[in-house]
């Protein structure tokens, strides 16, 4: 597994504008919710994907049942699903957006074979990392209080 360097991850944040988040929860205490909310507050458009919430509104956006249902282009697909779900999601993302820039697999999510397929198509892949944590770390927003204790706060300030 070769994740991008800090310079490359910073470049991801600079070029990405629209992020589809697969597995986004409407529950504000779930990590997918506060990661999405944090990214939205940083100026990214968040498109929620969750078949159980399809048709509802989260963050002012309609929730889609699948990546194939999203009518707009996205720059990044952020996956909050188990690792065994990743190959099908990568295939769906690559089929839907041939020019997709980034596939990001959340903390604890990794699938090297699916990542290799995406990389072969020119997609940048980040595995087993959280964009909220990486953004905070790279842009000087990560507060060590709470992080070293094993608690990651959903607080958005």
Poorly predicted runs:
145-149
Tally of extended strands? Answer: 7
Radius of gyration, taken over Cα atoms and rounded to an integer in Å: 15 Å
Q: Which structural category fits the helices and strands? A: alpha/beta
Total of helices: 6
Strand content: 15-25%
Q: What is the residue-averaged pLDDT?
A: 92
Order of helices and strands: HEHEEEEHEHEHH
**Residues in helices, as a percent range:** 25-40%
Shape: globular
Tell me about the largest β-sheet: 5 strands, parallel
The strand order across the widest sheet is 2-1-5-6-7
Quick overview of this protein structure:
With 157 residues, this protein is of the alpha/beta class. Helices cover 34% and strands 16% of the residues. The chain has six helices and seven strands.
Characterization of the model:
The protein is built from six helices and seven strands. It has helices spanning 6-15, 31-41, 86-96, 112-120, 131-138, 144-147, and strands at 18-22, 45-49, 57-58, 61-62, 76-79, 102-105, 124-126. The strands form two sheets. A five-stranded parallel sheet has the order 2-1-5-6-7, sandwiched between helices. It has a two-stranded antiparallel sheet with strand order 3-4. Helix 3 (86-96) packs parallel to helix 4 (112-120). The N and C termini lie far apart (33 Å). Residues 145-149 have low confidence and may be disordered.
Chart the SSEs and their pairings:
Elements: H1 6-15, E1 18-22, H2 31-41, E2 45-49, E3 57-58, E4 61-62, E5 76-79, H3 86-96, E6 102-105, H4 112-120, E7 124-126, H5 131-138, H6 144-147
Parallel strand pairs: 1-2, 1-5, 5-6, 6-7
Antiparallel strand pairs: 3-4
Helix pairs in contact: 3-4
């Amino acid at each position: 597994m070769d994740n991008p360097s800090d310079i490359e991850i910073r470049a991801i944040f600079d070029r990405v504008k629209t992020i589809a988040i697969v597995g986004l929860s409407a529950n504000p205490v779930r990590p997918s919710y506060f990661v999405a909310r944090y990214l939205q507050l940083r100026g990214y458009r968040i498109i929620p994907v969750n078949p159980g919430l399809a048709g509802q509104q989260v963050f002012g956006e309609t929730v889609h049942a699948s990546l194939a249902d999203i009518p707009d282009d996205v720059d990044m697909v952020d996956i909050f699903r188990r690792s065994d779900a990743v190959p099908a999601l990568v295939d769906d993302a690559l089929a839907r957006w041939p020019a997709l820039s980034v596939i990001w697999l959340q903390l604890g999510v990794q699938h090297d074979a699916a990542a290799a397929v995406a990389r072969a198509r020119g997609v940048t892949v980040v595995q087993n990392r959280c964009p909220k944590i990486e953004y905070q770390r790279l842009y000087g927003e990560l507060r060590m209080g709470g992080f070293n204790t094993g608690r990651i706060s959903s607080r958005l300030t």
